[in-house]
Write a structure and sequence with these properties.
By secondary structure, this protein is α/β, with parallel strands linked by helices. The protein contains 13 helices and 9 strands. The protein has one domain: TIM Barrel. The protein binds ligand G3I. The site of ligand G3I has 8 residues, from loops. GO terms for molecular function: endo-1,4-beta-xylanase activity.
Length: about 325
């Protein structure tokens, strides 16, 4: 059966976010990644607070190890992330002027992308720029960059990235744009406004990353999502699924039943994405229910474990994996 082939060999563009601890210490974890993935991304390691404990010091151990693992196993590593409001070290709070912000942001992109030039070929240059409840179409999420430089920090980041590594795929990554409801429609509209604006001004940008942290209790807006994706394609943007999982805090039923419901959400999501444009690649935010961010923020009230990912805690494939593989084979 083809599903048993390592993805790196069959070249299914399937990937997962990796954690450094199990990657180092657990053979079963490593085997699962090697078997199923042709690309990985660090769940952490390239974030500001991981790389820059102080202004002067850059700590590359974790991404270096992730890259070595990827290379040794015929996979690629994605870069996550250069400009984000989150995961910032405390010292960045003291950035107090536009000139200083520009120097820090540009310098960071030069250092980090420069170090991995030609080796990390796809970057989430800008992550989560749109607020959860945009007040208007031109609302941008607060961050030190937005505070000091305004919206122009986004174009500056992308232009800098293109200069540092002209071959790299430059991505804007976003969440919560796939669901039914006015709040999510407004987020899609604000996101589209930003993308159109960047394209109009010839800012280098190659792809949109849909994180895809799906919610078990919120249906996918299939029409709205397909229309959004089709519009991205019109602008010449590729579409990547970058952080897929299903937040199952409120999903009822026994584990086997929940797994099927979660897989059907993934089906709806990928089906709507594909209706708008071909799916380039799919990365999940973790590979096994054993290691996932979900219980950190969305622990179940019934004491049962969260099951957001394609493999269970014993690395057995769940229906979600079959759904993802189906869409990747059938692009
Ligand atoms: O490493 C320490 C550990 O030593 C300690 O025992 C533990 C106690 O809480 O904390 C551990 O660090 C946590 C780390 O995750 C472990 O993986 C951090 O506190 C926690 O803040 C960190 O959260 C990460 C979060 O981003 C913030 O950086 C999640 O792992 C990571 O999955 C999550 O990923 C984000 C993407 O970057 C962007 N999109 C949404 C996605 C999910 O929230």
């Amino acid at each position: 059966e083809a599903a048993a082939q390592p993805a790196a060999r069959t070249r299914l563009p399937l990937g997962a976010a990796v954690r450094d601890d199990p990657l180092e210490k657990e053979a079963d974890y490593r085997d699962a990644i090697i078997r199923h993935c042709s690309q990985i991304v660090g769940e952490g390691g390239l974030k500001w607070y991981d790389l820059r404990p102080s202004r002067e010091r850059f700590v590359y151990d974790r991404p270096d190890r992730q890259l070595a693992f990827a290379t040794a196993n015929g996979m690629t590593l994605r870069g996550h992330t250069l400009v984000w409001y989150g995961a910032m070290p405390d010292w960045t709070k003291s950035i107090s002027s536009a000139a200083e912000a520009e120097r820090e942001m540009v310098g960071h992109i030069e250092q980090v992308m420069g170090r991995y030039r030609g080796r990390i070929k796809s970057w989430d240059v800008v992550n989560e720029a749109i607020p959860d409840e945009p007040a208007s179409r031109s609302d941008i999420r607060p961050s030190i960059w937005q505070q000091r430089l305004g919206e122009s920090h986004i174009a500056l980041a992308l232009r800098t990235a293109a200069r540092v590594d002209p071959q790299a795929q430059l991505v804007i990554n976003e969440y919560d744009i796939e669901f039914v409801g006015p709040r999510f429609r407004r987020k899609r509209e604000a996101f589209l406004r930003l993308l159109r604006d960047l394209k109009l001004r010839n800012v280098p940008l190659h792809a949109v990353g849909l994180q895809g942290h799906l919610r078990a209790e919120i249906p996918i807006d299939k029409e709205g999502l397909s229309a959004f994706i089709a519009e991205c394609q019109t602008m010449g943007l590729q579409v990547l699924v970058t952080e897929l999982d299903v937040v199952d805090e409120k999903l009822p039923g026994p584990p086997e039943v929940r797994d099927i419901l979660a897989a059907s959400r993934v089906y709806d999501f990928l089906d709507a994405v594909r209706a708008g444009s071909p799916i380039d690649s799919i990365l999940t935010w973790g590979i096994t229910d054993r290691y996932t961010w979900v219980p950190l923020y969305f622990k179940r009230a019934d004491g049962l474990e969260n099951r957001p990912l394609p493999l269970d805690r014993d690395y057995r494939p769940k229906p979600m994996l079959r759904v993802i593989e189906h869409f990747l084979r059938d692009r």
